[in-house]
Hints:
The protein is α/β, with parallel strands linked by helices and 396 residues long. Helix content is 36%, strand content 26%. The protein is built from twelve helices and 19 strands. Helix 1 (18-28) packs parallel to helix 3 (100-113) and helix 6 packs antiparallel against helix 7 (253-260). Flavin-adenine dinucleotide is lined by residues 13-19, 36-39, 50-52, 122-124, 153-155, 159, 178, 271, 289-291, 297, 300-304, 306. Flavin-adenine dinucleotide (FAD) binds at residues 13-19, 36-39, 50-52, 122-124, 153-155, 159, 178, 271, 289-291, 297, 300-304, 306.
Amino acid sequence: MSGPRADRNVAVVGGGVAGPTLAVGLARSGYHVTIYEAHTRRVQDVGSFFNLAPLGRTVLEELGIDHVLESGTVCTGISFRNHKGRWLANNPETTTNIMRGELSAALREAAIDEGVELKREKRLSSLTEQPDGSWELSFADGSTAEADVVVGSDGVHSDVRRHALPRAPVPSYAGVIGSGGLSEVSERFEVDGTFHMTFGLRGFFGYQVISPGRILWFENHYESEERTFKELADLTDDEWMESLVERHRTDARELREIIRSAAGTVWRWPVYEVPQLEQWHRGTAMVIGDAAHAIQPHLGIGATLALEDAYELTAALRRQPEVTTAFAEFQADRRARVAEMCKQAQRMGSIMTPRHWWERMMRDLTLPMAIKKGIKRSEQGFGYRLHPWPPTSQAA
Ligand SMILES: Cc1cc2nc3c(=O)[nH]c(=O)nc-3n(C[C@H](O)[C@H](O)[C@H](O)COP(=O)(O)OP(=O)(O)OC[C@H]3O[C@@H](n4cnc5c(N)ncnc54)[C@H](O)[C@@H]3O)c2cc1C
């Protein structure tokens, strides 16, 4: 499909991380963009916080919208300890912890500022390709819309993927339960700009003191039996907190103190993954972010990959006037990066809670070297680099 971009309507389904970032780039490149988001509220009270890796911030800086991170807290390093509290290693990368809902809300505002239309309470229920290659979108409220191009940034349980790529793999339970919250603690916890990670005996725990007496924390642990969102939500916060305290009974005492001091909701969710798709697009419909590759959470890289996708897809569409050619180029470019991150996330997951003492000992011995090697590799330029942003003249 070619033709002047201003005539091209792009429907972005899902206004989480990738969706509104893509919308900013496309609106600036001359497309007419509408975001369809299933949720109602401006700031979604969902999913606790995430840690954004340096490249996530770089994407936002490249697009000139890094102000969306203003509500976050910068971490100047990530420290790793074992269950006894023994320090193992430090990763000096600068990252940002930010509430998911706050980041999505700020990104959506940034998209609106670029002239993007945001339609809330629009849950995609079906997607049908028309004979001329355009798409009809139907929503759960009975309304419909049309678009020349559809991008599904609707997360791990993507409806765009289900309809546009019916043979794509379906999400499977990753065997991990995640949870997190905000705790109010005594001021003996120092605001030190560090994201503290602990390999607990039966779960992985991370926290940052974001201001005197306030801590953001998360916990991931393996559970082979799947529990649904509803089953987890049906437990009271107290029941959930007590189960976490029990899980970390033999770990450093501060972890139990942080969990017990949770103020407000303690979020919890089963983690699903989707192996990277063979094919990310059909015709002029494409999936990005978790919809294309929901990886295990152990590396804390999913949101950064989603932002990279949004940047790189826009850049490809600016380089290539033909949408389907740009889609093919984008997919070919992203495959290796995503595959490498999946591999690293799996590796990290495999050392999270080893069953045997000797596996733990090996992990504790080799982790400092592995982290040093990773830092050296990225310093030497072997890390991922974003494509240069194509000049506007090519995009007209
Ligand atoms: C336990 C856990 C911990 C994590 N920790 C980190 C971390 O520390 N760092 C990190 O980088 N990543 C982390 N991630 C991953 C990260 O959250 C995701 O990779 C990221 O949010 C993906 O962004 P996205 O835009 O693709 O999808 P999402 O952020 O999931 O956004 C999808 C959007 O689509 C909307 N939607 C869904 N269905 C429809 C529909 N049918 N119609 C319309 N809208 C719809 C949703 O409401 C949502 O707003 C973690 C994930 C888990 C599970």
